[in-house]
From TrEMBL:
GO CC annotation, single: mitochondrion
Sequence ranges assigned to domain Ubiquinol-cytochrome c chaperone in this UniProt record: 122-258
Lineage: Eukaryota, Metazoa, Chordata, Craniata, Vertebrata
Gene field: UQCC1
Similarity remark: Belongs to the CBP3 family.
Signal peptide: none
Protein name (record): Ubiquinol-cytochrome c chaperone domain-containing protein
Superkingdom field: Eukaryota
Length: 286
């Protein structure tokens, strides 16, 4: 089927008019051109196609704006970096790897030296043993891992050395305590299983409600031997406020320094660190 000449001419005039208006920077259509296009359409007995180009232009503008403001949710890496990381090596990072390793060691040190373990043993009724120390230490290491996993490839690289520093420290402490090689190997195996089981449980708890987090603490930290619910409440509150505090720290500073300060276990007024939006009132006080 071929188009009739009059209808084809009318559509061409209308389309040219719409294109001129669009190329003029979004200004209104020229009135004389619009009248000519509409008159041609009426004489030809066809509907005006002026709406279609404008609608198409509006949709195209929206799509272009969406593409321009798109945020990258994942870090883009090259094909070479993906290849060497698939082979088990670490690709180029934003910061020097040695600086990140030193920061990882310093962050683990903050998990060990800036924690009052005696207070945790007292408040949670835990025995003063190497295993109890490890349970409290792994809880703080886990919170650091959760925070650093948000820093892309550099944060994941740092997490590896935080965990590596933890196992090196645990082995050295067991040697100082005089544990023989056979029992030390068995203890390290049991601690490894406990650590990764606790990681899964704490991850599920931090993403869920307080009941799930309390259940994870009851299984891992208290070893299913907690009869006082106030102890679970204390630890759930401690983890929530501690995670909120760590999330507010600058990621680049953590990658370069590894400095972490911990909020105390018991606070008289444990309030949110975020600034509360104060209500605004009018002249009448309403």
């Amino acid at each position: 089927m071929y188009r009739r000449p009059l209808q084809f001419a009318a559509r061409s005039v209308a389309h040219v008019s719409a294109c001129r208006a669009a190329s003029a920077g979004g200004k209104a259509l020229d009135q004389e051109a619009c009248f000519r296009a509409l008159a041609a359409c009426q004489q030809a007995g066809v509907s005006s196609p002026l709406v279609t180009p404008c609608r198409t232009l509006h949709v195209a503008t929206q799509l272009r704006n969406v593409k321009e403001t798109r945020q990258h949710t994942e870090e883009e890496v090259g094909a070479f970096t993906k290849l060497i990381e698939a082979m088990g090596f670490t690709g180029p990072l934003k910061y020097n790897k040695w600086k990140i390793k030193i920061a990882a060691l310093r962050m683990y040190t903050c998990c060990v030296e800036r924690i009052n373990y005696d207070e945790f043993f007292e408040k949670c009724t835990l025995p003063d043993t190497l295993n109890s120390w490890f349970l409290v230490a792994q809880l703080h290491v886990w919170m650091c891992l959760v925070r650093m996993r948000q820093e892309g490839r550099e944060g994941k690289y740092m997490c590896r050395y935080i965990v590596h520093s933890m196992w090196e420290d645990v082995e050295q402490r067991s040697k100082i305590m005089g544990i023989d090689a056979i029992h030390r190997k068995e203890a390290m195996k049991a601690m490894t299983e406990t650590f990764y089981a606790a990681i899964f449980g704490y991850d599920e708890g931090i993403l869920s409600d307080d009941c799930v987090l309390a259940a994870a603490l009851w299984r891992n930290l208290f070893n299913r031997q907690c009869e006082d619910p106030r102890q679970l409440e204390l630890m759930v509150e401690y983890i929530r406020k501690q995670m909120q505090y760590i999330d507010a720290l600058d990621g680049d500073d953590l990658l370069l320094t590894g400095e972490v300060k911990w909020r105390p276990l018991v606070e008289e007024n444990a309030q949110s660190i975020l600034k509360v939006v104060k209500p605004t009132y009018n002249d009448a006080g309403l």
